[in-house]
Amino acid sequence: MSTTHTLRVPGARLRYEVRGAGPLLLVFGAPMSAAAFAPLAEALAGDHTVVTHDPRGISGSVLDDPAQDSTPDLRADDVAALLDHLRADTADLFGSSGGAVTGLAVAARHPGRVRTLVAHEPPLLELLPDAAERRAVVDDIVETFRRDGHGAAWMKFMTTSGFDMDGSAPPQGEFSEQDLADSARFFMYELRGTTRYVPDVAALKAGPGRVVIGIGAESRKLLTYPTSTALAELLGTPPVEFPGEHGGFVTHPEPFAEVLRKTLAG
């Protein structure tokens, strides 16, 4: 069972949920909302206080300026504000995808707040040898959204990210009004800032908290595999394998939670 709350932060009102009891663990994505992490949060709530939230501009977290970009640094400051609000000096963090990039920004900007960060499959395209070409692909995805809409943009995003698709975009009617709004936020105001983030490796290595890179057991074909392994190599630590692929926390919540528990225990 969860309780739902709101927190005012600069430029936005964050919606967050709290489950369980025990050591504090913040779980988040980007652009995924808190709902995507509910099964994982439930699996962890028996021995952790699990806090999930909708990133700024997504789902129930409303922006003062709807045209404000969502950057990893802004989202990191939101996580720090949540910790302040929860009266927690430190916490363990789990971030997946764009949320992993958020977590890396937290560890760099607010190093004293992080006990252990598990950054699961961060899409850090700037770490790849073909970064310039990857930036051009992202620009093309954004332009596809502007020109052809939600379905075509997601199709291009998924195929260029390495996911197996059947060659056709899903019908527009399969998406809710909130899905469409969240997609617009992602493509117009978030995708570039997240994928072009360059982690401060020196700060991550020097910080008091531990940074662990997570990677899906079935993710080898995905673009986030080389980005994750590249960061792990820069940090000098082997990645930890989690069940499933990029969304393993959705498809395998119980075994995923068990690996996360063991990783946090160190």
How would you describe this protein?
There is one protein chain. This protein folds into two domains: 2-128 and 196-265, Alpha/Beta hydrolase fold, catalytic domain (Rossmann fold, 3-Layer(aba) Sandwich), CATH 3.40.50.1820; 131-192, no CATH class. It has ten helices and nine strands. Helix 3 (98-109) links the parallel strand 6 (91-96) and strand 7. The model has no long low-confidence stretch (mean pLDDT 96). With 266 residues, the protein is an alpha/beta fold. Strands 1, 2, 3, 4, 5, 6, 7, 8 and 9 form a nine-stranded mixed sheet that branches.
Set down the secondary structure blueprint.
Layout (H helix, E strand, L loop, with lengths): L1 E8 L2 E9 L3 E5 L9 H7 L4 E5 L8 E2 L8 H14 L5 E6 L1 H12 L4 E7 L10 H18 L1 H12 L15 H19 L5 H6 L3 E7 L7 H12 L4 E3 L5 H4 L1 H13 L1
Parallel strand pairs: 3-4, 3-6, 6-7, 7-8, 8-9
Antiparallel strand pairs: 1-2, 2-4, 2-5
Helix pairs in contact: 1-10, 2-3, 4-5, 4-6
Mean pLDDT: 96
Q: List how many beta strands DSSP finds.
A: 9
- Given the structure, what is the number of helices? 10
Task: Please state roughly what percent of the residues sit in beta strands, choosing from under 5%, 5-15%, 15-25%, 25-35%, 35-45% or over 45%.
Answer: 15-25%
Sheet with the most strands, sense and barrel status: 9 strands, mixed
Poorly predicted sequence stretches spanning 5 or more consecutive residues: none
**Could you say what the CATH architecture of the largest domain is?**
3-Layer(aba) Sandwich
Shape: globular
Question: Which structural class fits the helix and strand makeup?
Answer: alpha/beta
- Taking Cα atoms only, what radius of gyration do you get, to the nearest Å? 17 Å
Helix content: 40-55%
